[in-house]
Amino acid sequence: MSTEALLATCWTTAGDAAPGRGDGRSPLSLRERAEAAGAAGFTGFGLLHTDLAEAERAYGLAGVRSLFEDNGLRHIELELLTDWWADGPRRAASDAVRRDLLRAAEALGARHLKIGPDVTGGPWDPDVWAEEFAVLAAQADGVGARLGIEFLPWSNLRNLHDGLRLVEAAGHPAGGLIIDAWHIERAGTPAAELARIPGSRIVGVELDDADEHVIGSLFEDTVRRRRLCGEGSFDLPGIITALRAAGWSGPWGVEILSDTHRALPVSEATKAAYRTAAALLG
Fold first, then answer.
1. Checking CA distances to 66, which of 46, 78, 206, 214 falls within 20 to 30 Å?
2. What is the extent of the structural domain holding 198?
3. Number of domains making up the chain
4. Would you say residue 1 lies in a domain?
5. What is the pLDDT of residues 78-108, one digit of tens each?
């Protein structure tokens, strides 16, 4: 099994919750989730903004930090900020989330914040995006965290190269990419290309698997039909080898999203996610 750190991303421990369903809030308490992750072997934990707000009300940020520490969860990821490029009411709502995430990142000693691209298909200005990303990266850096953007095949940042172009244009050392195996494979990016990414631009990695063919939309396929690592068609050994060649040594995120995974008790789901990813990492 792996001796490297593994991070349970937010959906891996969320139980019956999913992106695109209401505000994504987990029906489980943070204590239940943190204990399941720690017991499974994870040393990292991801938390969605809506769950973070709920946990802060229940335990206070100091209590949340203690809960993570008590369960051996040292690598903390907070997500997800969108509309950070927008203006008007959307930007005002986004800025409120930004303030929450930055404040919590500092209090929890989070390693990084995860942000998303634009999935609406609207027009966008790469220069404005680079400028806004640099500002946000500097703010993350100011609270001791890094900033990672996740490219998505159905967004304005469709693949690895789109994402890299943005973070290089922004130029801030705290900014980089969140690289999800699902998005690499579904965008048709050869695993070997990951080896050429500057190691300093990799902020986070997410491992998962899926069947060879997409069923339904890309969004539906990614939310409902991911598989445990090693149980699908992805070239995960190739992806892991290439990322190691680029200089990545963890923590390795594990992001399992599926109807099957959500139906399991969290302790069982979390153990399966850890066991299968750790076996691949060797």
1. 206
2. 6-281
3. 1
4. no
5. 999 999 999 999 999 999 999 999 999 999 9
